[in-house]
Amino acid sequence: PVVLGIETSCDETGVGIVADGVLLGDALATSMDEHARFGGVVPEIAARAHLHAVTPMVRHALDRAGIGFGDIDAVAATAGPGLATAVQVGLAAGKAYALALGVPLYGVHHLAGHAAVDTLEHGPLPDRCVALIVSGGHTSLLLLGDLARDPVIHLGDTADDAAGEAFDKVARLLGLPYPGGPAIDRIAQDGNPDAITFPRPMTSPHDPPYQFSFSGLKTAVARWIEKHGDQPVPVADVAASFQEAVADTLTQKAMAACRDHHADTLLLVGGVAANSRVRHLAEQRAANAGVRLRVPSPRLCTDNGAMIAAVGDLLVRANVAPDRLDLSADPSAVLRGALLKDHSV
Ligand code: ATP
Ligand code: MG
Ligand code: FE
What is the pLDDT of residues 5-34, one digit of tens each? Predict the structure, then answer.
């Protein structure tokens, strides 16, 4: 089946076209620059940008795939979680295309997209694996079965800030531009990761093993900067040391989950999986433990349309019943499965 996927949960307007596990074409627009002077995404600006970009991006993706509207067999759109007004633009567009083309609509969970996108580069997922989803709004360790059919099991999530949120907030403390993750990644190349020992949150033996917490780490960075306020901040060293603390914490817990749950595959996905140090440390630790690491190319780690088309493609091929066109968006939906709304409950 040829599936059109639409993603508008945050500040990226992404459209992808996937057929039987193959990415035929995609297109991406971002309103990132319009948010930079506010230091974070402004929902109203993001929603308006989606409204302008969604139709042209669908056109682009079709052109790149070399197909027309008549070739589309199903439409998938992010139905949550995300910024309410932003999600609604893409979902409404998805409904309109589905209705106009007379094809089924799937309202998919954004985080399922982060996981499913890996199949476009590395083939079908194994029957079960541990997944670490690390993004701007989420940090979750999961047990995945068949992504299209099985419920997702949460081993642990973050008690406060997401890993990506911590990158963005620490970048702000360091006077680095939005979005902070890529900026920290870049400047950390020139820093010493051992310069400062920041805490590895929730890693002591009496802590819940798969639970995360990043707001204390952000505060530790803020305190360190305050304490050394009389000298110029060694930005590269602070960035590298902070990044090391995050990478160490994430990979320690992911490897523990693989070991405890006898999983031979670790799926590392979401925007923070684009981080060079997180990727490198995960590779090393997975290799040492004999675990197969699957991580998408950096451009597919951050939000895009291909990830949503990938979920739709899995759902169609698994014969999962589509959604009704009166499906409503849920800005804070917890990840239970590929569809935002599980029809079996
Ligand atoms: P969610 O998926 O939880 O709804 P989101 O869609 O906004 O959140 P993503 O697009 O998956 O998040 O990822 C964006 C986040 O990833 C931002 O916090 C950004 O700073 C972070 N990020 C992107 N690239 C990197 C990088 N190279 N290093 C660290 N963090 C990064
Ligand atoms: Mg974004
Ligand atoms: Fe995302």
Answer: 999 999 999 999 999 999 999 999 999 999
| Backbone region of residue 123 per phi and psi (left: phi > 0; alpha: psi in -120 to 50; beta: other values) | left
> Residue 244: CB within 6 Å of ligand 1?
no
| C-beta of residue 275 within 8 angstroms of C-beta of residue 181 | yes
Ligand 1: atom nearest CA of 111 is 2
**Quick one: DSSP state of residue 126?**
P
Q: Is 164 in the pocket of ligand 1 (CB under 6 A)?
A: yes
Q: Looking at the CA of 29, name the nearest ligand.
A: 2
305 marked ligand binding residue: no
Beta carbons of 18 and 310 less than 8 angstroms apart:
yes
Residue 114 binned pLDDT confidence (cut-offs 50, 70, 90): very high
Instruction: Say if residue 136 carries a ligand binding annotation.
Output: yes
230 C-alpha vs ligand 2 centroid, how far in Å? 35
Dihedral of the alpha carbons of 300, 305, 311, 314, in degrees to the nearest 10: -90
- Res 342: pLDDT: 79
Does 145 show up as a binding residue in the annotation?
A: no
pLDDT in tens, 28-53: 999 999 998 888 899 999 999 999 99
137 Cβ inside 6 Å of ligand 1:
yes
The C-alpha atoms of residue 166 and residue 254 are separated, in whole angstroms, by 18
Map tokens 């409404």 to a residue.
92
DSSP three-state, residue 196: coil
